[in-house]
Every structure is written in C-alpha cells, then in structure tokens.
Amino acid sequence: MARTPTGTIHSVATVLSVAKTITGISNAAEAVVSSVAHGFANGDIVLLLSSWGRLNYRAYRVKSVAADTFVLEGANTTNTDWYTPGQGGGTVRKATTWVDLDRTMNHNTSGGDAKTVNVKFIESDVEFVLNDGFNAVQRTFEMDADMIGSPAYDALKLLSETNADTIVRRRAKTGALSLIPAKVAFNEEETLTEGQAVVVKGTFNAQNLSTRYAA
C-alpha cells in the first residue's frame, strides 16, 4: 500500500566506531563479511569501504552475526564480474550514536537519475544511447531556525564544519528504512519569508546509493 512522508523520522550518525579491517567478503545473495572480533550485533548499521567499487561507501544493516563474520543484509554480490572473488577487502565502521532531526520541513531529493551518452557511428543515420551510470544524489531540507542549540542543530553544524562521514537514516511510520552515506552542508543563514517560519537550510550530499529495507 502507498504511504505519505508524514511521520518520517530523519536521523544522522554523529559517531562512527573505529574502523575494523575486512579480510574478505563472500560472493553470495547476501554477502558474508570476514572481520576478526568485529564486535557488531544484529541490527547494527555500518558504513562499508571496500575495494569492490559497487560496495564502496555503502551503508547496510547487519544480521547473522558470528564471532568473526557477519552478513550485510540485502547486499547481493553473486555477480563475479562485478565482485571479483577473493577481493572486496577494506574497512567497516558502526554507527554508534544517532541524533534525530526535529522540526524539519520541505525535504527534497534530486539526482539518482540515469546518465546516458549519445553515440553516432559515421556509417549510421541514427544515434545510439548508452547507459552511463547515475548522477549523484542530493537531499535538501529546512529546519526551524529556533532549533539553535538543540542536539539536532548542533549535530548538523558539527558534521558540516568537520566534513565528517555520516549515514542519513530515514524511518517511515510503517517501519520502512532507508540508509545513505553522506556529507552534510549546513547553512545557518536565516531565511525570512513573510507569513512563514524562519528557517535555516541543510543539504545531504550523498556518497553513494541508498540501501532500502521494507517494513
């Protein structure tokens, strides 16, 4: 059934754990990560940096935890052309602290659209269109300017000033979940429009694709 945005809670990860070394990632319908004494638990959210480009800078939920392995829920790595067996090493960090973004409005998303290249061979009268990946995702929002000094305001300000890695988490009322790694740009300049709330503006510049989980 369709849903509306009402009731969606946005959060940012303000603390990521010390990076744990990945010694290997399996080729599987849901990838198994080998990382000695990782210390993660089922349901943790992690940021992955991998030599496999399609997994690099992706956020996933952890499941099926064992002492030195865990599964990246929903990470399908069965295609060995994209995920060369025996590679995929890197690091992984857990989001240990989350801050909910209160009193935000006018959330908009741009990007994520298909990029194409038009090619015309000299002997042909017709152009061909080649797929060339997707453009970057950017999310913008406004926050009540009087939130200054609140945990949410301070978190956005710090993430922007330090250019730190974060994960943006969306939780719908239904329980559906969306995760995307991002950098924060937070503009504290007040916007004053007659008849509207005074706001400041923020931007999430995504570093890769979203990972989505059903309710």
Please, could you describe this protein's structure?
The protein is mainly beta and 215 residues long. It is built from one helix and 16 strands. The strands form two sheets. Strands 1, 2, 3, 4, 5, 6, 7, 8, 9, 12, 13, 14, 15 and 16 form a 14-stranded antiparallel sheet that branches. The N and C termini lie close together (11 Å). The model has no long low-confidence stretch (mean pLDDT 96).
Précis, in short:
It contains one helix and 16 strands.
Key terms for this structure?
215 residues, 14-stranded antiparallel beta sheet, two-stranded antiparallel ribbon
List the helices and strands and how they pair.
Elements: E1 9-16, E2 20-22, E3 24-25, E4 32-34, E5 45-50, E6 58-63, E7 69-72, E8 90-100, E9 104-110, E10 114-119, E11 128-134, E12 138-144, H1 151-162, E13 166-171, E14 177-191, E15 199-206, E16 211-213
What's the mean pLDDT score?
A: 96
Helix fraction?
Answer: under 10%
User: How big a fraction of the residues is strand?
Assistant: over 45%
Spans of 5+ residues with little confidence (pLDDT < 50)? none
Number of strands: 16
Class by SSE composition: mainly beta
Question: Which outline best applies?
Answer: globular
Order of helices and strands: EEEEEEEEEEEEHEEEE
Number of helices: 1
- What is the rounded Rg? 20 Å
How far apart are the first and last residues' alpha carbons, in Å?
11 Å
Largest β sheet strand count, sense and barrel closure: 14 strands, antiparallel
Oligomer: single chain
